[in-house]
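batch job 7 of whatever, protein = ABC transporter permease
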Amino acid sequence: MTRYWPVLAGLLRALALISAIVVIVFLLIRAVPGDAVDVLAAQGDLTARQQAALRTELGLDATLAGQLRRWVAHAATGDLGQSLRFGRPVAAMVTQALPTTLGFAAAAFAFGFALALLLAVGALLAPRSPLPALVEAVNLWSIAVPTFVAGIVAILVFSIWLGWLPVIGNLPVPIVVLGLDIAGQLAKPLLEELREARLAPHVRAAHARGLHPLRIVLRHVLPAALPVLLALASVSLASLIGGTLTMEALFGLPGLGSLVLNAVNGRDYPVLQAVIIVLALGVVLVNAVADLARRLIDPRVRA
């Protein structure tokens, strides 16, 4: 039983974290001045009586505790409520937008991960080439340039000045912009870990046997750095999600980012909290899987 306790403890921590996220998101969203009825009233002629009746119909006149209890009770059955702005089931709206977000995030992460791996391995094998400096430059880029700024600059250059790509629905540019940010986060720490792993006795023995340097890196150095690589990838997930939502809103992609933007503008509480909680669940789940994978492949973590 004791060998499974770390996994059970991780699941309990994940449940506690998800519960805290639900409450915090619920309260923060409603801390914003105004609600969906105020937005509708600003767009048309609604009397005070009509506004009060609409708040009662939408359940906005209940206390925060009452609204939270009702939302949790419905969410436990899979009912995320109705959009206050569009009157559609929130679950259907999230399900419709989720594939676009997952596909875009997966493409950006794959590009960034592959680029970071190529840069780190190349800099390790050719320390006197420009590659180590390029690793530093990409790392500095990810620290100094926010993704939304890079996205705006990309729109100005490739869509407005050069006219090569449309602004709305353009996929290659946001994938590259977000992928560069991910590569900058991963490449430098990965290179440092590879340099440390190369000093291991079995790696030195492989060098002494005259094996090709690339073969040594692929067969001995990279596997030793795999636990750290998994940790880096899971840590970069939060940045990936934030960048994905930003890029979708900037480039008009029909994903969760555009859904969040419309929900914020319309004070659409059910949509906004559903999207945030779904994303938080995804982060918690991926981190839990990454932690379990590290325990399986790294004896030091199991100990």
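notes: The mean pLDDT is 81.
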